[in-house]
Design brief:
Low-confidence stretches: 6-48
Number of strands: 0
Order of helices and strands: HHHHHH
Structural class: mainly alpha
Shape: elongated
Distance between the termini: 19 Å
Number of helices: 6
Strand content: under 5%
Mean pLDDT: 75
Number of domains: 1
């Protein structure tokens, strides 16, 4: 049961990460303003990618390219997010004493696993496309900013 719980928690975290991509245009919008950090979303951390890109002094052409990449990826990411949300609601609306509960858990676990895989592939593709838009110096700077962010996350107390 713990592995199912871990998978569902991972799926929910992935769905939250997916919200970043579904609002991916905000990443490009954040890149439009290189002097101010991205406006926090309802969950604050969703805009870290935009915040990092805003520190790279993107040219107007780069900003337009990133915006186009995000706009193209948005519909598929939104669809995946909606499917994962529907699965989560299906599980939430099924009570543990329901005779079909185990089947619903298995169905949602399998469906969300496949959706999570699609989401990771889509996010990786978007990341690769955005990375290609950057100059070598910006790529290096982005990697340094990501390393700094990672070290701050590792230094933060773990949420329980």
């Amino acid at each position: 049961m713990k592995s199912i719980r871990n998978l569902l928690a991972g799926s929910l975290m992935a769905a939250a990460a997916l919200a970043t991509a579904t609002t991916g245009i905000s990443v490009a919008t954040a890149a439009d303003d290189t002097t101010a950090p991205a406006a926090p979303g309802p969950h604050g951390w969703h805009h870290h990618a935009g915040h990092l890109l805003s520190k790279l002094n993107l040219t107007p052409e780069q900003q337009a390219s990133v915006k186009a990449i995000m706009a193209n990826a948005g519909p598929e990411m939104k669809s995946i997010h909606q499917q994962m949300r529907a699965n989560s609601l299906k599980l939430q609306n099924t009570q543990p004493n329901d005779p079909n509960y185990a089947n619903v858990v298995a169905e949602v676990t399998q469906a969300n696993g496949a959706l999570h895989s699609q989401m990771i592939s889509q996010q990786a593709e978007v990341r690769a496309q955005v990375f290609k838009v950057l100059t070598p110096a910006q790529q290096t700077q982005l990697q340094a900013l990501q390393a700094q962010r990672q070290s701050r996350w590792q230094g933060a107390p773990a949420a329980q």
